[in-house]
Amino acid sequence: MKENKKKAVDTTVPASLAHLKMDRRKMLKGVAALGLVLVQEPLDAVTQKAESIHPLAVDPSKVLGVPPGTLGTRSVFEKPAKLPSFTSARTPLQDLYGTITPADLHFERDHAGVPRIDPTKHELFFHGLVEKPMAFTLQDLKRFPSFTRTCFIECSGNFRTGKTTLTPQEICGLTSQSEWTGVMLSTLFREIGVKNKATWFVAEGGDAALMTRSIPVEKAFDDAMVVYAQNGEAIRPEQGYPMRLLLPGWEGNTQIKWLRRIELTDQPYMTREETSKYTENVAEGKIRQFSFVMDARSIITFPSYPSQLAKGWIEIRGIAWSGRGKIQNVEVSVDEGKSWQDAMLQEPVLSKAHTTFRYLWHWNGKPTLIMSRAIDETGYRQPSYRELVAARESRGGYHFNPITVWEVKGNGEVFLVNDR
Amino acid sequence: MKENKKKAVDTTVPASLAHLKMDRRKMLKGVAALGLVLVQEPLDAVTQKAESIHPLAVDPSKVLGVPPGTLGTRSVFEKPAKLPSFTSARTPLQDLYGTITPADLHFERDHAGVPRIDPTKHELFFHGLVEKPMAFTLQDLKRFPSFTRTCFIECSGNFRTGKTTLTPQEICGLTSQSEWTGVMLSTLFREIGVKNKATWFVAEGGDAALMTRSIPVEKAFDDAMVVYAQNGEAIRPEQGYPMRLLLPGWEGNTQIKWLRRIELTDQPYMTREETSKYTENVAEGKIRQFSFVMDARSIITFPSYPSQLAKGWIEIRGIAWSGRGKIQNVEVSVDEGKSWQDAMLQEPVLSKAHTTFRYLWHWNGKPTLIMSRAIDETGYRQPSYRELVAARESRGGYHFNPITVWEVKGNGEVFLVNDR
């Protein structure tokens, strides 16, 4: 690694630092002169004015910066973006760090766009097999005991293939992670008095698609929540403002956004979204329905297409997650799958949460294939693409979580490998 | 609690839900008609057009929503904001949920504003008592082994008093929390070869204040980092883009933003920021210097000024943190400090991190005082204001972390209590 890191410089202080004291005096005069007039101006105006006044404006330490404001902004040199289609927008996994997805980069999958909901006019209505049908406003929900947990949400259709020039964002950018705050659904079920013969509940969204899914009651008494906050603030409209259903580890489509109605029933509704959609082929021409849990998965986000590598030490980085619990281990292969080594997992490893992994690799410059596979605490191991195709008798579909294989060419270019 | 939660409604499906099937058909026609022309239009245009076409536009489930985009946005009904002054901006603690502070609401304390730094022109230069003086660009840093941790940063001047109408944001909004990613400083120190006689290092920022602080080398080999990412994305300009020093648990002023230079020395520099500033009175007229660690503290963020309470069950909520390690316990008193009960801490409880606490209180409508005190894993207990005044022979200053006391009046109004 050292070879790549080192950058020899002479031991004298560089020119830009040579006259700190004199420059500091100059700068302070500059500050005094500029201070009052600049307070309310945007960054570019500040810089332009400073540059017009100050000969050393190319050095940001020689000009007054932007004063504090009510909201921070991104650097003008950073432009992360989701990849939108007509019905979804994918998180730029290859551009992110750590485990939290910034709220405005959280993936989005809508069936009729994002509604604008006035929280003072929105109610969550409980009815059906209950003792006391009730409706709760956002303010009502905030008076119940609150709970906070960090977990991922993934669309069960989170898979793309067929080209060697796909990025992690394109391959599986329909997974994101937030710290969610809200009320345990079990708390609300006790409040309304769920009847014993209620075995399912139907959740309905307030968007123009009236997205509706049937959920077994057991999940409500396990870890389901109605959440109103995300990453410290009110939940974003694209994620269900003012409230959404959170079903940790289950497919995103079931975690109804803009939640407005929950009906307790003794059977599933058999809606379009659980019959013609969100089902998948399994062996012998059968179709699997109500496949709620997201299987363990991982992907190397660096290096990935379109990385350009140089010989030497490279930190292979990626994320792994499982809807069944904690990630127990991530194995990395840098020799086309012949041998596998354990990657380092970043603590804390949380249940049903994105977990970042790292593996230090010394690349000798020879062409190879690199890949990662996740193992969760139930012992489930992420399968290869070929294993999945054999099991599903299909080359894709929902809940398709194959190992992602990257080809590293001799010239350092990296491409996706399909069908392996 | 139930009394306050219940809202009786009859068991028939409310009018707004009575004709779902018919309305869904109507809506789908609407979607088909509106879809193509609406794709690229902003939310307000979509809604106005839809309202002009659709008679039921008052119900967001009857109009096509906004299609997916490259960046999400806040709801137009939510307007969280920092409270800016000329040199700082405070986090709205009373408006937040969970433990993560959204990056654009992270508190800010600048000494010459926020510089605009082009990362391709920025270097972090190491020199002084080292084997190999070296400079690293942002890209260089990203090739080192990475590390991620969640911790708070707090300004050591984080205290206000003197009025009963202060909010948590005004009292101690100079603390925020992020998930930080970067390189362990110890990794960089090994790379440059820190000499044995180096006992301190001096960190300098690239802003117009050239903020400079002296730090004992031990901290570098404990848990100090140079971070380039915050809450999943590039660090924000207000927090030091493209890189800042992270000293978990230490006063914010030492965690140099826009970090451009680290000099290894055998003594502190005795800069302005560690002599005339960032020192505090202790007993017998002495002044305490280099008081780096932030003591354990907590504050009830709900109820707080200007909450308006109703009789019945109330979930008291707040945050607690300590620069010495994990929060071990938060004790809450609802009877003016006569008795104290343990609050519930939200897992996971992380070291040197904001920890949320909750305590379910049934308010009988009588006037009282409520307060919280934090105890950390070292056994340190947050003091009262009067205890601090006695110990410091001062009524404020740096590292002033008193218990915050809220007065609940008979009419449900809540005010800050000073001098107690």
Walk me through the structure:
Two copies of one chain form a homodimer. The first copy, chain A, is α+β, with helices and mostly antiparallel strands and 420 residues long. Chain A has eight helices and 24 strands. Chain A has helices at 2-5, 20-38, 43-53, 138-142, 168-172, 185-192, 217-222, 385-392, and strands at residues 83-84, 88-90, 108-109, 124-128, 134-136, 147-154, 175-184, 200-205, 212-216, 225-230, 233-234, 244-246, 259-265, 280-281, 287-288, 297-302, 312-321, 327-333, 341-342, 344-345, 355-363, 368-376, 405-408, 414-417. Chain A has a five-stranded mixed beta sheet. In chain A, strands 6, 7, 10, 11 and 12 form a five-stranded antiparallel beta sheet that branches. A five-stranded antiparallel beta sheet of chain A has the order 19-18-22-23-24, with no helix packed on it. Chain A starts with a helix and ends with a strand.
